[in-house]
Amino acid sequence: MAIIASIILTILLIPVLALSESSPLEGTYWIDGKFLSDPPDNQKKDTHIYFTIEGSSAKDLYQLIDVKPVLNKCGVDHWQKRKERI
After folding, report:
1. What's this model's pTM, rounded to 2 decimal places?
2. Residue 14 within a domain
3. Could you tell me if residue 38 is inside a domain?
4. Per the domain annotation, does 18 fall within a domain?
5. Measured distance between the N- and C-terminal CA atoms of the chain, rounded to whole angstroms
6. pLDDT one-digit tens code per residue, 19-31
7. N or C: which end of the chain has fewer CB within 10 A?
8. Which range of residues forms the domain containing residue 84?
9. CA-CA distance, 67 to 54, in Å (whole number)?
10. How far is CA 4 from CA 1, 12, 16, 20, 32, in A?
């Protein structure tokens, strides 16, 4: 039954995948806890994954986030967009 479901799902996804564009990602990731700045002493270090994406993929993703950019006071002329669920 699981094999049949997988085949059906694959068949249904082929047209969607054929229409969508993909591009390679450049960047890094790291695994850490919820709070990166001043974490509590008992914070687990394996609960969140963080990504830094570079290049044209970063620009594309940045433009897709539909919130206004905000000046980050921690950087020099560093604008950012934040959204929990895209």
Report:
1. 0.53
2. no
3. yes
4. no
5. 33
6. 567 778 899 999 9
7. N
8. 25-86
9. 20
10. 5, 12, 19, 25, 38
Taking the alpha carbons of 66, 70, 72, 75 in that order, is the dihedral positive or negative? positive
Tell me, what DSSP letter sits at residue 70? E
Half-sphere exposure for 7 (CA within 13 Å, toward CB): 4
Average pLDDT over residues 12-21: 57
Q: Which alpha helices (DSSP H) does 44-86 contain, by range? A: 55-64
Does a structural domain hold residue 59? yes
> Phi/psi at 10 (nearest 5 deg)?
-65, -45
Residues 6+ apart with CB under 8 A from 42: none
The 3-class SS string of 29-42 reads: EEEECCCCCCCCCC
Residue with tokens 């039954």: 1
Q: Which two tokens stand for residue 43?
A: 């914070």
